[in-house]
Amino acid sequence: MDFRKTLVIIAALSLLAGVVFPCTAQEMEDLPVDEAPMPAEPQIEASFERARIITIEDKSEVLPTEEGERVEAYKEIGVEMLSGKHKGEQTFFKDSPSTNPFGMEFDIGNKVLLYVEDAGEAGWTVSIDSMYRVPQLLWLIFLFFLFLIVLGGLRKGLKTILSLVVAVVLIFKVIVPMVLAGQSALFVTFIIAAAVSVITLLLVGGRNKKSFAAILGTVGGVIIAFIFSYIFSESAHLIGLSTEEGRLLAANNPNIDPRGIFLSGILIGALGAAMDVAIGVASAVHEVREASSESGFKKLFSSGINVGRDVIGTMSNTLIFAYVGAALPTILLFQGLGQSWLKFLNFNFIADEVVRSIGGSIGMIAVIPLTALFAAYFYHARAGKSERIRQSGGVVRKIIDKK
Hints:
Layout: H1 2-30, E1 45-65, E2 68-81, E3 90-94, E4 111-118, E5 124-131, H2 134-152, H3 154-180, H4 185-205, H5 209-235, H6 244-252, H7 258-291, H8 297-326, H9 328-337, H10 341-345, H11 348-402
Antiparallel strand pairs: 1-2, 1-4, 2-3, 4-5
Helix pairs in contact: 2-3, 3-4, 4-5, 4-7, 5-7, 5-11, 7-8, 7-11, 8-11
């Protein structure tokens, strides 16, 4: 009897071991093995900082080669940091393609913009991005504002500066954030372009019929520029990805329409020239009306058209020359290689510039008759109203005389 009990107990224990031990073995396999912890990679903080060049020394180093050794001469550049967490510190580095990729020449005392990679306790490295040009650019802007005030008068100059500042703020604080947030680039740009034209022309020209005519002519011309640019970009299969920047923007922001960005650039590019032509035509109609109060609609309209014709050639050249100037290095490179001009014109980025410049010029030309039409209507309506008042006054005087 005891033997039977012993067998049963052994069988039960064997069965229990068959169930428990495999599970335990699997759990043991799943347990993490004690290993030496991998060292954490240092977090690198990248930034652009200002620095001043304090030393430039000629040095040399011996480098091993297959034939033996060779001596290589190089320059060691020392800089003092002028901004950032390392401000006041000095660092020295070899002038090489990795630290000076554009091969710029420096003098002691030059200020440069450095690309700094800071790995904390592991150290920090620098490479030269460019010369530090901000002070020179600020001086140029100051001289531009000074010319506006001296030649345009204090009041007019300050109004022009204010309108320019407002336009820049609207572009960088409204258009750019809204487009990056996924809003329609075309819709946002058109609204801001209309707002810029209203603000600029009211500030510069004052609140009068001349400014209102110029505003309507500018907006109409910009709309026509958009229509022509859209039609021909569609027919030429231009999608706004002809430049590296456009492709990078589209890759990083899939919610942005590249063609919308392309057409928005046309609107912004044509806006300044359109306002210039519009205010010139409206001012001419205003002066004709002031010189001859009896001028009718036809004469006022013809005066605006005649003034506009004088500026068509120069203003069209302004837009085209601006875009050609931006593409001049490419034109020279292509001509130097002796390539086909047919191939050149068929490049995506060249086709973009052609549509951009011609479309903007068409819109600018359309500003002339539109502004002349609105200005002639406004001033003719004013003249008709004045004549009716004058005639009414004469009738009243005759009635009084008879009495």
